[in-house]
Amino acid sequence: MSRTTRLLTLLQALRGKKRPVTAAVLAAQLEVSERTLYRDIAELTALGAPIFGEAGVGYVLRSGLFLPPLMLNAEETEAIVLGLRYVDQRGDDVLSRAAANALAKIADVLDPAAQEALRNPTLLPGPPGFGYPENRVPLNVFREAIRNQAKLHIDYADASQTQSQRLIWPLALGFLNEVRVIVAWCELRGAYRTFRTDRVATADLQGERYSGRRSDWLRAWRKLMEQNEAGPFTPDKK
């Protein structure tokens, strides 16, 4: 392993740790001596890497350092490309453009070996299906509500075309093969519900944030869905 590669590998190893990790553990991971590891830490710190810690206690990489995807190997490159092409097929126009831009940025900084995996991947997404039903409400409305933790009033029709009005706490958008859904807490039902976006006739932001943190609500939903035999994205029928 070259010195430059070793330094980048060390940064990547630190980046994946949320708690301080000792020099002994890092040295073993990089297959170098602890003396070499200490020198590498000192050099990276001198170059501006926000590494904090001390010998005998451990080191942690704080936020503020962006690592370009220079260290991606062939498998990692193909995994990212597969995901971005899946998004391009199944996302809306906003996500498709974002996926294309992200792929172009990655291509600019990949080393020659990884470039081959980008040009000729061994992994391909399956066919996107027969297209999505048309939405009357742009997905950006849902995205804005999710990001701002904003309550959303919707007019909704279920599978039997029964109309209802809901005040929901939007948590996430789900992109399935044939439909798109919004995961939310429904005030009418007092429970988590999943709504097909193409069945939402209107959606109005209420200018009011829902309580708690979205991440906590979403974590509780995931835990509940682990016990739900119907699956996590079954649209609401009540």
UniProtKB/TrEMBL annotation:
Keywords: DNA-binding. SUPFAM superfamilies: Winged helix' DNA-binding domain. InterPro entries: CBASS_pafABC_assoc_protein, HTH_11, WH-like_DNA-bd_sf, WH_DNA-bd_sf, WYL_dom. It comes from the Bacteria. One of its GO terms (molecular function) is DNA binding. Residues 6-59 form the Helix-turn-helix type domain. Gene3D superfamilies: Winged helix-like DNA-binding domain superfamily/Winged helix DNA-binding domain. Residues 139-203 form the WYL domain. PANTHER family: PROTEIN PAFB, PTHR34580. This is DNA-binding protein.
